[in-house]
Amino acid sequence: MAKIAEHGFKESVDLMFDQAAATLDLPPGLGDQIKANNNVYQVRFFVKFRDNYRIFTGWRAVHSEHRLPVKGGIRYAPSVDQQDVEALAALMSYKCAIVDVPFGGSKGGLNIDPRDYNEFELERITRRFAQELIKKEYISPSVNVPAPDMGTGTREMAWIADTYRMLHPHDINAIACVTGKPVSQGGIDGRVEATGRGVFYALQEFFRHPEDVRDAGLEGGLEGKRFIVQGLGNVGFHAVKFLQELEGARITGIAERDGAILSEKGFDVESVAAYIREHGGVRDYPDAVYIEDGRAALEEECDILIPAALEGQITLENAPRLKTKLIAEAANGPVTFEANEYLRDQGVIILPDAFLNAGGVTVSYFEWIKNLSHIRFGRLDRRHEEIRGQNVIEALESITGKRLPDEFRRKLTYGSNELDLVRSGLDDTMRTGYQNIREIYRTRDDVVDLRTAAFVMAIEKISSAYLEMGL
Ligand code: NAD
Predict the structure, then answer these.
(1) Which end of the chain has the least Cβ crowding within 10 Å, N or C?
(2) Rounded to the nearest whole angstrom, what is the distance from the C-alpha of residue 243 to the centroid of ligand 1?
(3) Domain residues for 293?
C-alpha cells in the first residue's frame, strides 16, 4: 500500500466532525463556529526548587460555550501540546452533548512528566498552575470546571479546590470549581471508577442488541470474551476490572509503558495492577508471555480491544494487522481518521471515544450538582425508602398471612446510598447514549458508522442550542 500522510489528533477530530456535519443541513458558518475552539490560554510559570528555577508551560482551551460552565480534565504529560488540548476540548463539547450533560467543552494540559517530581514538588507546581488559571477565570464553579485526566487524580483536584478556596474564601460554591475530588473534600462516591465503569455499562448495552453483536462478527454475551487493554491506569483498570468481575470476561493482554503481557488463560487485573504499583511496569509478571514492544500487543488476536492510554495508537501502519472485531475507545482519540476509515471498510466496529468514555464527565456532573446543593445524594430519602419497603412487606404479609423470605425483606427495605444512585444514573446515561447513537446509525443512510452517528447527535444538539439562543 502506498504510504498516505496521516492526520494528527486535532485534525482527525475535525475531519470526523466534518464527515458528520456534511450529513446535516446547518446554516452556513455554524459548523465552523462549533468546530473551532473559542479561546486558548497558554501560561508559562516558574517554581523554585532549592536553588533551581523550573519553568513550566500549560494550556487551558475553551471549545464551545453554548452551555456553562465548560468542563474538561487537566492532563499532565510530557508530550502534551496546545493542539492536543484543543482536540481534547472539542471532544469534551461533543461528549457532553451526546450524553446530555449540560456543559460546554474545555481541557487543560501541563507539559510535565509527573514521575520526575515528588509529591511536595507536584503540589507546588499544581497550586501554581491552578492559581494562574483561576486569575484568568479558567477555573471557576460557574464558568470553567476541570477534572482529572491522564497523569492527574483526586490528589491534584484537592490541591486545586483548596487553591481556589484560598483565593475566593467567600464563595459558598468554591468547592464546585473542580470535580474528581476525594470524597472527604467534597467529591462523590463512584467518581474515581466512573469512566471505566461507563465503558463497562456501554459494552453491556452493546451486547443487549444481537443485531449489533452480529455485525461485529461476534455472538453471545460478554462472558468468556477475550479482551486486550492498552493502559492499566484509571480508565483501563476499572473497565477491565468490572468486565472481569461482573461479566466473566477474559483479559488476555495488557499493554503498558514498558511492554505488554499476554496469557490465553486471562489475567487477574487486580493482581497485575498491584504488580505494576510495586515494580513500575509489567515486565517479568509471572506466568505470562512478555513482549517489549507494548503497542504490538494491539495486533494480537482478541474479541474486543480497549485502547485506554493515549491518542494516535491505531494508525494506517498497524490497522491492517489488527485481529479484533470490536474496538472500545476508552482513551480519547486512539484511532486516527484514516485508520478509522480503513477499519470500517474491514467491518471492524468502533465504539467511539466521544460516547464511550463519557462516564467520567457524567459523574463529574453529579458531583458538581452535589457541591452546589451542599447535600449528599440519598441523605434525605434513604430511610424514607426503607420505611416504604417495610410498609409493603407488612401489607403483603397481612394479606397472605405468611412471612416473606428474609432475602425479599432485605431487598425491599434497602434504601439507596450515594454510590447506588451514582451507578444508577451512570448506567442509565450510557444505555440511553448508546441507544440514541445506534438509532441514528441504523436509520440514516448517509451515517456510515457509530462515530459519525455520535458526532451527528452532538452537532445537532449544539447547533440547536446556538440557534435557539438567536446567535
Ligand atoms: P492514567 O494516567 O490513569 O492512566 C494511563 C495509563 O496508560 C497508565 O497506566 C500509563 O502507564 C499507561 N500508558 C502511558 N503510556 C503508555 C503507552 N505508550 N503504552 C501503554 N500504556 C501506556 O490516565 P487515565 O485517566 O486512565 O486516562 C487514559 C485515557 O482515558 C486518556 O486518553 C484520557 O484522556 C481518557 N479519559 C480519562 C478520563 C478520566 O476520568 N480519567 C475520562 C475520559 C477519558
Answers:
(1) N
(2) 18
(3) 1-36+188-381+416-471
